[in-house]
């Protein structure tokens, strides 16, 4: 059954929110559902020369989503099946875990808003083009980055778009607010389920002077977003912005509390979870339930001697990675496909579950009063 209404989940931040897991998707990852969709983004010429217009269309959600950084053309070496292109992120797997709890006329609509490497107070702001000014041919919203690796007939390339979240006039911020409004306006019965936020690495990596500005800038963004979405509050939990859950995730063991810049960013999120317990939820994903570090691309990286020229990827284990998103020595900064499919999506879905149940109960009450 095609959904009549949607629970909207925003996924925002940088690379571990977007998903830079490099393994090939499994066959089950390629199976889509009309009840798990994403708000499409890309409009214009693709690297392979095809024209497309996906802007704000409801499209099936797969392992790679229409984030601000376009990773759909990032292939593992030797991959010739283009259905398997792209990196792997968290959205699909969170939605699959929550979907069985929803009525049949209801679906989950993902709004992918992440850009790998985007900072809060560091990074190029990029360009924002209002949808009203974009016309039928230009890409609306925040300037889109793109990565094409090992894609047949296309030279390898990597470009960045809007790379800074901070400020109420930043392209990434404006893009996110506009697309939340769009998703909720599709149906008065749509509800904002929450926001998955994974960000801060770039600010921590830039050093203590930059990191110290991160907590204040993030808090200001959170408050401003509530003001800019005031017309949508009725479609939020308890009709309140401060009841919309923000899952603040630390993704991999790259984060080290013993480093001053890292601790500043992480402690900023921890404090928000204490100060705003109805809105902010600190989720430390760095360790698995067994106490071992969460798996990353580094756990599946294979050095060059394993990649013979012309070797087809279907002759190699699907879980192997070739470190195309970053140099091998930093492969540990990105969560693995195994992590997204497994414990990470399980814990994120569990964190959203009480809010989902509350929204469902609210809608039942509203229907009974009509």
Q: Strands of the biggest beta sheet: in what spatial order?
A: 5-2-7-1-12-13-14
Counting copies of identical and different chains, the oligomeric state is single chain
Order of helices and strands: EHEEEEEHEEHEEEHEHHHEHEH
State the secondary-structure class: alpha/beta
- Radius of gyration computed on alpha carbons: 20 Å
Total helices: the number is 9
Distance between the termini: 24 Å
Q: Which bin fits the share of residues in helices?
A: 25-40%
Number of strands: 14
Q: What's the average pLDDT?
A: 95
User: Which geometry do the CA atoms define?
Assistant: globular
Describe the largest sheet. Answer: 7 strands, mixed
- Which strand-content bin applies to the residues? 15-25%
**Low-pLDDT ranges:** none
Tell me what you see in this structure.
The protein is α/β, with parallel strands linked by helices. Helices cover 28% and strands 18% of the residues. It has nine helices and 14 strands. It has helices at residues 15-18, 91-98, 131-134, 171-185, 201-205, 208-211, 214-228, 260-275, 337-369; strands at residues 5-13, 36-39, 43-45, 51-53, 58-60, 69-74, 106-114, 128-129, 141-142, 145-149, 157-159, 191-198, 246-250, 280-284. The chain has a seven-stranded mixed beta sheet with strand order 5-2-7-1-12-13-14. The chain starts with a strand and ends with a helix.
């Amino acid at each position: 059954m095609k959904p009549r209404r949607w629970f909207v989940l925003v996924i925002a931040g940088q690379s571990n929110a977007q998903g830079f897991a490099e393994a090939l998707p499994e066959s089950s990852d390629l199976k889509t559902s009309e009840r798990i969709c994403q708000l499409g983004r890309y409009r214009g010429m693709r690297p392979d020369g095809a024209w497309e217009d996906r802007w704000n269309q409801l499209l099936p959600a797969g392992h790679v989503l229409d984030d601000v950084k376009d990773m759909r053309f990032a292939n593992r070496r030797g991959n010739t099946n283009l259905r398997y292109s792209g990196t792997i992120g968290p959205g699909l797997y969170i939605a699959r875990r929550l979907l069985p709890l929803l009525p049949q006329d209801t679906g989950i609509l993902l709004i992918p808003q992440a850009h790998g490497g985007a900072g809060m107070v560091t990074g190029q702001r990029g360009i924002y083009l209002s949808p009203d000014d974009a016309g039928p041919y230009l890409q609306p919203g925040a300037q889109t980055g793109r990565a094409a690796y090992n894609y047949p007939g296309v030279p390898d390339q990597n470009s960045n778009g809007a790379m800074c979240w901070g400020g109420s006039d930043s392209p990434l911020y404006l893009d996110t607010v506009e697309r939340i409004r769009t998703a909720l306006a599709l149906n008065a019965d749509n509800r904002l389920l929450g926001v998955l936020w994974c960000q801060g690495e770039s600010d921590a990596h830039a050093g203590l002077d930059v990191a110290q500005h991160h907590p204040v800038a993030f808090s200001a963004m959170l408050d401003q977003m509530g003001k800019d979405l005031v017309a949508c509050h009725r479609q939020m939990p308890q009709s309140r912005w401060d009841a919309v859950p923000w899952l603040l995730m630390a993704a991999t063991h790259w984060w080290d509390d013993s480093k001053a810049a890292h601790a500043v960013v992480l402690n900023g999120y921890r404090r928000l979870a204490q100060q705003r317990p109805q809105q902010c939820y600190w989720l430390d994903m760095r360790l698995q339930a067994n106490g071992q570090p969460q798996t990353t691309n580094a756990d599946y990286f294979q050095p060059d001697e394993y990649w013979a020229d012309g070797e087809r990827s279907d002759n190699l284990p699907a879980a192997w990675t070739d470190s195309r998103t970053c140099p091998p020595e930093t492969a540990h900064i990105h969560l693995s496909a195994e992590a997204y499919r497994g414990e990470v999506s399980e814990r994120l879905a569990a964190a959203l579950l009480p809010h989902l149940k509350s929204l469902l109960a609210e809608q039942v009450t509203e229907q009974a009063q009509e």
